[in-house]
C-alpha cells in the first residue's frame, strides 16, 4: 500500500515515516502544493495513495486547501467513494472549529492531534481498515 506524508516540519515527517514505513511505501511532500502534485502524479502512474497523512498548518497551500484540491481531483477522475484515499489530518491544534473544517468542509477521514503516538496512529489505521 502507498502513503503520502505531507508535513513541513522535518522531525514530524521523520517520525511519521518511521511509524508508517513498516506498513506502507511512503512518499513525502513538504507542503500542500507538493501534496496535490504528488497525488495527481500517483494517479497518472496508476499507483494512487491509499493513505495521506497531512498537516493542517503549513506555509503556502495549507492542509485544508490541499485536501480540498485532492478531493476535487478524485471527483474529476471519477474515483468511486470507496476507493478515495483515506486522509488523516494532523495538527497541534485541538480546536473544535479545526476538526469541523477538516471533516465537513475538507472531506478528511480522520483527525489526530500532535504529538502522534504509534498506538494512536495504529489504532486509527485499524479503524480505517488499512491494517
From TrEMBL:
<dbReference type="InterPro" id="IPR052048">
    <property type="entry name" value="ST_Response_Regulator"/>
</dbReference>
<dbReference type="Pfam" id="PF00072">
    <property type="entry name" value="Response_reg"/>
</dbReference>
<feature type="modified residue" description="4-aspartylphosphate">
    <location>
        <position position="55"/>
    </location>
</feature>
<feature type="domain" description="Response regulatory">
    <location>
        <begin position="2"/>
        <end position="129"/>
    </location>
</feature>
<dbReference type="InterPro" id="IPR011006">
    <property type="entry name" value="CheY-like_superfamily"/>
</dbReference>
<protein>
    <submittedName>
        <fullName>Response regulator</fullName>
    </submittedName>
</protein>
<dbReference type="InterPro" id="IPR001789">
    <property type="entry name" value="Sig_transdc_resp-reg_receiver"/>
</dbReference>
<keyword id="KW-0597">Phosphoprotein</keyword>
<dbReference type="GO" id="GO:0000160">
    <property type="term" value="P:phosphorelay signal transduction system"/>
</dbReference>
